[in-house]
C-alpha cells in the first residue's frame, strides 16, 4: 500500500520521507488518516470473513461446518473486530484526514500523539486476533462479554482480550483528545463554532463521548482482570459481588458507544446530501443541537439493554421513556435531511446513493429500536434475531454506509483521481440489495423467536436463514469490489479537479486534488 | 494559531483529568450500585437483619414462602431445604432448616447467596438469622443443619401472596484456603 501512495507525493517539494519509516514515524495527519482507513478496511474484511463463517453455518439448520464452541468465538470476534477495529478507526481516519482540511488547520494539534494512537491499534488487534490460535480458543462470550461468562467461565485467552481492549481504548481516548484540541484550538481565523462543517461538529461531540465512556470500559475490563487473577469479587456472587453490576457498567459505556459509531456518519451525510442536492443544509443549527441532545440523552438510557434482568417497574418506565425521547432529536435530523433534498437539483453519484440509503435504512433501524424500547415488548424480543436485525440496520447502512459515502465523496481529494462511477454504483446496489437480503429476514425470524448466538435453529426458520446467508455472501463479496475500486482510484484515472462536486461546500475543496502533503501552512480567511 | 480560549497544553490537561475522573467513576459505580440496591430493595437483595417492626402479626393474611436451592458450578455438596414451602402470617417469625452434606474427602468452605423473588417483595423480607451471614466449613462426609429465621413485613403489598427465597451455594474453599486451618477447629 505504501508504494502505491508514495507515487503521488514523491515528486512534491516538501514531500514525505521515503521508505517504510515514513509510515512508522509520520506525524502528518494525511498519512495517519490513510493508515487508519487502510487498517479499518483490513479489519472490516477480517470481521466480515468471520461473519461469512457465521452465515455459512446458519445457511441450513443443524451443525455443518463448525462446532458450537468455534461458532461462539466467531460471533464474539466478529462483533469486537467490527466495533473496535473497523467502524471506530474508520471514523478516526476520516477525522484525521478531513477535520484539519475542513477547519483550515495545518495538521492535528498533537501530531506525535496522533502517530502513537494509530500504532497502538495494530498492537491491540494483533493481541486480540492471536487469541484465535491459542489453546482453548478465542473469547467466546459475545462482544458484550457479560460476567460471569467472561470471568468465571471465560477461556484463558480472556486476559489477552482485556489487554487488547485496554490498548484500543487508550488509542481512542488519545485520538479523541487530539480531535478536541484540534477543533477547539486550530480553527482558521473567522471559523466560529457555528460556522464549522457538521462533520467537525459531530466529531467534536463524539470525541467528548469517547472521553466520557472509554475510561468506564477500561474500568470494567480492569475489574474483570482483577476478578480473574487477583481474587476480587466485583462480579462474583460467592464473594459478595453481582453479575448484574457488570451489565450496568458495561452498558453505561455501551450505549454512548453506539452513538460514537453513528454521530460522525450523521455529520458526513449532513455534508454529502447538501452537496448533491445543490442546496445548503436545512436547519444547520437544529442539527448541531440535535447532535448534542442525542449525546446527552445517551447517558440516561443504558438499562434498556437489560430490561429482562429484573429491574423495578419504575426503572423500566424511566429507561423506556428516556429511550423513546432520543427518537425526537434523531427525527429532527431525518426531517432535515429530507427537507434538504426537497426541491433540490439532485444527482445520484455514489456518495449520494449511499447517503440516501443511509437516511432510509437507518430510519428503519431507528424504528425497530423504538419497538425494542417498549419494555413489555422487549421481554419477547430480547436476545432474539430481532435485536440482531435492529443493530445491524443501524450499523451497516448507518455507520458503514456513512463511511462508504464519505470515502467516495473525498476519494478524489485523497488520490487526485476520480473513482470509477459505474463500478461504484455497482458496489452500492450490490451492497444495498445484499445488506437488505441479509438483515431484513432477521426481523421475521426474531419475532418468531429465533435466539441469537446459537449455531443451530428450528426447521421453520430455514428459508429465511438461507435468504439471509445469500444476502450476506453477496454483501461480503461486494466489498472486494470496493477494495478494487479504491486501488484503481489510487493508481490513476480521470484527474480530479480541486472541487469535483459542483454543489460541495467547504475549505477542503479550496486545496488542489490530491491534497498536497502540507496544507493551510498559512491559515485561510473564513468570511 | 493562537486562540482566545485555553492553550493546547492546558486543554489537554483538563481532558486527561476528565479521563481519569471517568475511570474512577466506573469504579464508583460499584458502591453506588450496592447503595441503590439496598435503598430500593431491588435485585432480590433482602433487607437487613435488624427488624424493628411491631410484633404485630397480621392474622388476616397468609403468605406462601417457598424455598429453592441450587449449587453453583463445581459445588459438590448436597444442599436443600427441609421443607419446600410454608404458609405464614406477615409479622410472624419462623425458622426453616436447610441441610447440607459434604460428600467429598476434603474439608470444604461454602458460602450461600440468598435472593428473593419477586424482587419488589425483597425489601419486605427480613432474615433475623441466617446461615448465609457466615461461611460454612464441613469436614469430609459431615452433614449440617442450617437455620434461617425470618419475618415477612406486614407492610408487604397486598397482591404479593407468594415469595420465593432462593439460595445458591458457592464453593469458596480455595478463596478461604489461608484461614481454613483456623476455621476448621471451630466447627462442631
UniProtKB/TrEMBL annotation, chain A:
Please name the InterPro entries in this protein's record.
Cyt_c_oxase-like_su1_dom, Cyt_c_oxase-like_su1_sf, Cyt_C_Oxase_1, Cyt_c_Oxase_su1_BS, Cyt_c_oxase_su1_dom, Cyt_c_oxidase_su1_bac
Where is the protein localized? Cell membrane; Membrane
A cellular component term from Gene Ontology for this protein is: respiratory chain complex IV
The alphabetical list of record keywords is: Cell membrane, Copper, Electron transport, Heme, Iron, Membrane, Metal-binding, Oxidoreductase, Respiratory chain, Translocase, Transmembrane, Transmembrane helix, Transport
Cytochrome oxidase subunit I profile domain location, by residue?
A: 23-527
Q: Which domain of life is it from?
A: Bacteria
- Membrane-crossing ranges are 35-56, 76-97, 118-138, 158-186, 198-226, 258-276, 288-307, 319-338, 350-375, 387-411, 432-450, 470-490
Its membrane topology is listed as: Multi-pass membrane protein
Q: In which pathway does it act?
A: Energy metabolism; oxidative phosphorylation
The reaction(s) annotated as catalysed by this protein in its Swiss-Prot or TrEMBL entry are: 4 Fe(II)-[cytochrome c] + O2 + 8 H(+)(in) = 4 Fe(III)-[cytochrome c] + 2 H2O + 4 H(+)(out)
Top enzyme class = translocase
* E.C. number: 7.1.1.9
Please cite one Gene Ontology biological process associated with this protein: respiratory electron transport chain
Q: Name one GO molecular function term.
A: cytochrome-c oxidase activity
Question: One Pfam family name from the record?
Answer: COX1
Briefly state the protein's biological role: Cytochrome c oxidase is the component of the respiratory chain that catalyzes the reduction of oxygen to water. Subunits 1-3 form the functional core of the enzyme complex. CO I is the catalytic subunit of the enzyme. Electrons originating in cytochrome c are transferred via the copper A center of subunit 2 and heme A of subunit 1 to the bimetallic center formed by heme A3 and copper B.
For this protein, the record's NCBIfam families field holds: CtaD_CoxA (TIGR02891)
Q: Record's family? A: Belongs to the heme-copper respiratory oxidase family.
Name the record gives this protein: Cytochrome c oxidase subunit 1
**The gene coding this protein:** ctaD
UniProtKB/TrEMBL annotation, chain B:
Keyword Glycoprotein recorded: no
Q: Does the keyword Transcription apply?
A: no
Recall the GO molecular function terms of this protein's record. Answer: copper ion binding
| SUPFAM superfamilies in the record | Ctag/Cox11
Q: Which InterPro entries match?
A: CtaG/Cox11_dom_sf, Cyt_c_oxidase_assmbl_CtaG
Membrane topology is: Single-pass type II membrane protein
Its annotated compartments are: Cell inner membrane
A GO cellular component term found in this entry reads: plasma membrane
What are the UniProt keywords, alphabetically?
A: Copper, Membrane, Signal-anchor, Transmembrane, Transmembrane helix
List residues traversing the bilayer.
Answer: 12-33
| Main location (coarse class) | membrane
Task: Fetch the Pfam families from UniProt.
Answer: CtaG_Cox11
Q: What does this protein do?
A: Exerts its effect at some terminal stage of cytochrome c oxidase synthesis, probably by being involved in the insertion of the copper B into subunit I.
PANTHER family on file: CYTOCHROME C OXIDASE ASSEMBLY PROTEIN COX11, MITOCHONDRIAL-RELATED (PTHR21320:SF3), CYTOCHROME C OXIDASE ASSEMBLY PROTEIN COX11-RELATED (PTHR21320)
The entry sums up its family as follows:
Belongs to the COX11/CtaG family.
Instruction: Identify this protein by name.
Output: Cytochrome c oxidase assembly protein CtaG
Q: Which organism is it from?
A: Halopseudomonas bauzanensis
Amino acid at each position: 500500500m505504501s508504494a502505491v501512495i508514495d507515487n503521488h507525493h514523491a515528486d512534491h517539494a516538501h514531500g514525505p520521507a521515503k521508505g517504510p519509516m515514513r509510515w512508522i514515524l509520520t506525524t502528518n495527519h494525511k498519512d495517519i488518516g490513510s493508515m487508519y482507513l487502510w487498517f479499518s478496511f483490513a479489519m472490516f474484511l477480517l470481521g466480515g470473513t468471520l461473519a461469512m463463517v457465521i452465515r455459512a453455518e446458519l445457511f441450513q439448520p443443524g451443525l455443518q461446518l463448525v462446532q458450537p464452541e468455534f461458532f461462539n468465538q466467531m460471533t464474539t470476534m466478529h462483533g469486537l473486530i467490527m466495533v473496535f477495529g473497523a467502524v471506530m478507526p474508520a471514523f478516526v481516519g476520516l477525522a484525521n484526514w478531513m477535520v484539519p482540511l475542513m477547519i483550515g488547520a495545518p495538521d492535528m494539534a498533537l501530531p506525535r500523539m496522533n502517530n502513537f494512537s494509530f500504532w497502538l491499534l495494530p498492537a491491540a488487534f494483533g493481541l486480540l486476533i492471536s487469541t484465535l490460535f491459542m489453546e482453548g480458543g478465542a473469547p467466546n462470550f459475545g462482544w458484550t462479554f457479560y460476567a460471569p461468562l467472561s470471568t468465571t467461565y471465560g477461556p484463558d485467552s480472556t486476559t489477552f482480550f482485556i489487554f487488547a481492549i485496554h490498548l484500543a481504548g487508550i488509542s481512542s481516548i488519545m485520538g479523541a483528545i487530539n480531535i478536541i484540541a484540534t477543533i477547539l484550538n486550530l480553527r482558521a481565523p473567522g471559523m466560529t463554532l457555528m460556522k464549522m462543517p457538521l462533520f467537525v461538529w459531530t466529531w467534536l461531540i463524539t470525541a467528548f463521548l469517547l472521553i466520557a465512556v472509554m475510561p468506564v470500559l477500561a474500568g470494567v475490563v480492569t475489574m474483570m482482570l482483577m476478578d480473574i487473577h487477583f481474587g476480587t469479587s466485583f462480579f462474583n456472587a460467592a464473594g459478595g459481588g453481582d453479575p448484574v453490576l457488570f451489565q450496568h457498567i458495561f452498558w453505561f459505556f455501551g450505549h454512548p458507544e453506539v452513538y460514537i459509531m453513528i454521530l460522525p456518519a450523521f455529520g458526513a451525510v449532513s455534508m454529502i446530501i447538501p452537496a448533491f442536492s445543490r442546496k445548503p443544509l436545512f436547519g444547520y443549527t437544529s442539527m448541531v443541537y440535535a447532535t448534542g441532545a442525542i449525546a446527552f440523552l445517551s447517558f440516561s438510557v443504558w438499562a434498556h439493554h437489560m430490561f429482562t434482568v429484573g429491574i423495578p417497574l419504575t426503572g423500566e418506565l424511566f429507561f423506556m421513556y428516556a429511550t423513546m425521547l432520543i427518537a425526537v432529536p434523531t427525527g429532527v435530523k431525518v426531517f432535515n435531511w429530507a427537507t434538504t433534498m426537497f426541491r433540490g437539483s439532485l444527482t445520484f453519484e455514489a456518495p449520494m446513493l449511499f447517503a440516501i440509503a443511509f437516511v432510509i435504512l437507518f430510519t428503519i433501524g431507528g424504528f425497530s429500536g423504538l419497538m425494542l424500547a417498549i419494555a413489555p415488548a422487549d421481554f419477547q424480543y430480547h436476545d432474539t434475531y430481532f435485536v440482531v436485525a435492529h443493530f445491524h440496520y443501524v450499523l451497516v447502512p448507518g455507520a458503514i454506509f456513512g463511511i462508504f459515502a464519505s470515502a467516495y465523496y473525498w476519494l478524489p481529494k485523497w488520490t487526485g483521481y476520480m473513482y470509477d462511477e459505474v463500478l461504484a454504483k455497482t458496489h452500492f446496489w450490490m451492497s444495498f440489495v445484499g445488506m437488505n437480503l441479509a438483515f431484513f429476514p432477521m426481523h421475521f425470524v426474531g419475532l418468531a423467536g429465533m435466539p441469537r448466538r446459537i449455531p443451530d435453529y428450528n426447521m421453520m426458520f430455514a428459508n429465511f436463514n438461507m435468504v439471509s446467508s445469500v444476502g450476506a455472501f453477496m454483501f461480503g463479496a461486494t466489498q472486494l469490489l470496493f477494495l478494487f475500486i479504491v486501488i484503481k482510484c489510487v493508481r490513476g484515472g480521470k484527474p480530479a479537479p480541486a472541487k469535483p462536486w459542483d454543489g460541495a461546500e467547504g475549505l477542503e475543496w479550496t486545496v488542489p486534488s490530491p491534497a498536497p502533503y502540507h496544507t493551510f501552512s498559512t491559515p485561510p480567511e473564513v468570511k | 494559531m493562537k486562540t482566545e480560549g485555553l492553550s493546547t497544553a492546558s486543554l489537554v490537561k483538563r481532558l486527561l483529568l476528565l479521563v481519569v475522573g471517568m475511570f474512577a467513576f466506573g469504579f464508583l459505580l460499584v458502591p453506588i450500585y450496592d447503595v441503590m440496591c439496598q435503598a430500593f430493595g431491588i435485585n432480590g437483595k433482602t433487607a437487613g437483619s435488624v427488624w424493628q417492626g411491631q410484633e404485630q402479626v397480621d392474622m388476616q393474611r397468609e403468605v406462601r414462602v417457598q424455598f429453592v436451592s441450587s449449587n453453583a458450578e463445581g459445588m459438590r455438596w448436597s444442599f436443600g431445604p427441609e421443607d419446600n414451602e410454608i404458609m405464614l402470617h406477615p409479622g410472624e417469625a419462623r425458622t426453616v432448616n436447610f441441610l447440607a452434606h459434604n460428600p467429598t474427602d476434603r474439608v470444604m468452605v461454602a458460602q450461600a447467596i440468598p435472593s428473593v423473588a419477586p424482587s419488589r417483595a425483597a425489601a419486605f423480607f427480613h432474615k433475623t438469622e441466617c446461615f448465609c451471614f457466615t461461611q460454612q466449613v464441613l469436614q469430609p462426609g459431615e452433614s449440617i443443619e442450617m437455620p434461617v429465621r425470618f419475618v415477612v413485613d406486614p407492610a408487604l403489598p397486598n397482591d404479593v401472596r407468594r415469595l420465593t427465597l432462593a439460595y445458591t451455594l458457592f464453593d469458596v474453599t480455595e478463596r478461604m484456603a489461608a484461614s481454613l486451618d483456623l476455621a476448621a477447629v471451630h466447627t462442631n
